[in-house]
Amino acid sequence: MVKTKVKEKSEEQKTHSEQSFDFNKLRKYAFPILVVIVALIGFKIRYQTASYKYFIDPDTFYHFEIYKLTIKEWIPKYYMMADAPFGSKIAEPLGLYMLPALLYKFLSIFGYSEIAVFKLWPPLVGFFSIIAIYLLGKKFHSDWAGLWAAAVMMFSTAHFVRTFSGNNRGDGPFLMLFLYAVIVLFMYLDSKSRKRYLWGALFVIFSVTSLSVWNGSPFGLMVLLGFGSVYAILLFIFGKIEKFKEFIKDFYPAYFAVLILGYLLTLPGIIRVRSFIRFAFEVFIALVLLTLVMLYGERFKLNYSDRKHRFAVVAIIVLLGFAGAYAYVGPKLFKLMSGAYQSTQVYETVQELAKTTWNDVSRYYAVKSSDGMIFLISLLGILAVALRFVLSLSREGKIDEKQLFVLIYYTMSLYLMWTAVRFLFLASGAVILVFGILIGELFSFVENMKEKASTKALYAVLLIILFIPIPVVGATSMNSQAKAMARAGSVTPSWEETLKWLNQNTPKLSTATSWWDYGYWIESSLLGNRRAPADGGHARDRDYILARFLANDGTKSEVDFESWELNYFIVWTQDIFKFNAISYLGGAISRKERDNLAMVLPFQKYGNNLYVLNQNQMIRVLTENGKKKVVIQVGNQQLEPIQAIFVQTGEVVREQGTYPGIVWIFPNYALLTYHKIAFSNFIRMAFLGGNGVPNFRLVKSTGDINVYEFHPFVVYKIEVYKNGTWSTIKKLEPGEYKARLYISAFGRDVKDATIKLRAYKNGKLIADETIATNVNIDHLNEKPVEVMLNVPNATKYEIVLIQKGPVGALVGAPEFNGKLSNPIYVVPEGKRGKLTLKAEFDKDYTVSLYLRATIIYLVRTQGTNNEDENAAFEPYMDIIKYVPVKEGISVKAGVNTITAEVEMPQVFAQYIEQLKQKYGADKVIIRGKRIEPVFIADKEYVIYSQG
Known about the structure:
This protein is of the alpha+beta class. A hairpin with a 3-residue loop joins strand 12 and strand 13 (669-674). Mean pLDDT is 91; it is low at 1-21.
């Protein structure tokens, strides 16, 4: 019996010893260490792209310039390179630049350069985001949930896309700061010690800072407000009055402090979402009023006797409040952040603003390739959270605030995610958190099993083995992708060559443009360092005008580029892959044609008479009865284009037109072009060296990129009168004779101009003769100018046209009545006061200052309404008035400060009404109204040069 008792005691001790093993003690230290390792791996993956000498994302080139300004000025207001020649007010929240600028101030002590810190910042955001998602998962569920969420965020494409080096946008820092704000909010709500005030202060700081880095930050305000509202209402309905009062006392003042401090920081521009903060404040006031009703309604004989009555009171008040809000705000109430997607014809064509599809979700939330595993598992996770919340609420009347927050955060994230591709990143916080919570549930289930510690440990190991391939495979795949991105870069060698050429070979005040995608490259101090009329974030009204020029030909394509003081136009052959969007924005095709037809298809040459796109699409050049015939083979079909043009010989072959296109045959390839854009300026300038576009002179070519020098006025043909007939000459010859000058005026009339002939001999001016005065040419109906020429024997000749034209460029933010003014809407209609401008000129001038009113609009030419798939929109840019301000201003070469008293009359309303009467009120869409300060001087245009 003794032995038996001893044995029983031994077994008991063994069991006690086994059960006394506390895994919590181990993971208290092990989990944080693991998370730091995971975060370091995530940092390393994101930092791979820092090896690329520039930036991967085009917008980041712009953000780098403002970041540099912030280091110098701290609160910069103006960026002179955009919206040429006026510059632009900085519209981005300055917190986006202040945070990395502060980091630079610290790291520069250790020798880090501006660009090195700028490249370091996004991976650091990724690192601290991974730490944040761990802490949040731990706070909301368990350290297992936090660990697995961190492991997924380490490699997730959805999170990587905004936190890798070379993509410095605001949504990455916003999500990081918002996650920390949520963590400290719940620490504040849970704590009963004095530390709660520290957590509350940190909540306000993180929330306000999150508002300062991204103009989409109102999402955070609405998630917090949605949580606060629903939680307060549920506490009231389920009779948790004491907890309700406690929550009001804690949450309401903290949220109010966020709104007040956030609003104050909009004054210096550190935060830019003033109108939304105001809207959030109005909604918050409505919540406060509802709260007062819930607290004191019984005094006014409202029935709060049970849940049903309390729910009925709240439901009626909320419905009335919603109806009032709808009456106040209108349909925009349903379109949270709708300005960021699909709100204009331009935004329809931007890939990241397109409506999200399942293919996008499956790619962004994949472990590898496009499996969508992370998102699918998160759906199971949110179902588990919802089930726990509902069961707890229905069975125990318990309202779990953390589960409620997760439900609201996830739901609002999904709503936004499905509106536009760009919000797939924003949703990554909620999706990855819920993914972690589901796996945390499995581990918690194992831990709560009534089994021996060793058995539970075995189950835990099995779960780890089951899920560990996810971060391992995901991290390996993402690391490979990051390396490939670094190798490929974003600026192609030909673009780099072109932009460096532009930087080194053009005057400082030059203005250059291309399709707007490349505007930030043109402006970048690392590349072109030249002013651009349009880019990814400025002058979105001008995008339509660029598209009109590129997608059309003849007089329909002519726009007043001289009003932009344009000097160079860059055309890239690869824009054939964007030409559906360009053609649509330029009014050449309808929305349906954009979505269903290819504007340009490139075919590679295989053999003498065969050009291949793929195995199902080919172009064959045949000979029938001694005549050439071009056939388009699509599968088993043989179609004929309208015509085929052999570029090298100029031969034109007319066809039956069973395919609505034109084939261009080049020596090594062929282009199949949709007939509406087949002779567009883009085709001519990208592939034909500018043939047929005389105002653009090719000055640089890399093979796939052509740079053209723009001349508003150019002589494209000269005829001389000899022996009773007019004949075309290729060059001027010495002598005295009558001539006709055929002048192309591109998008702008010649008005009261003087034309001179200048002759140079060995670089010395030997003749400067006026050959015509009071010259006027209608650019839509050009007629030749007849002149008498007395051409001396010289080595170089120039024909110069002199007329009034815009000169100079703004180099500082304009001020109106002592306040910063928008450079492209410098004086509001109906206002008067003092205007101060800082402008730079390339030489001395006597100028007159005008306010130029310009309107950019679309006219629907097809379709029954603007949303019709058959709708097409033709863009226009009309200069409707020059308002004289000050004449006879003497300016010197360099920077000048000009002040003047101005008064701007009302001009737009009447003009818009006239447009609606002309085209139909429902067919006119206004895209831009500009009141720009313009300096006009006698300007010389070299319209012909020889020798």
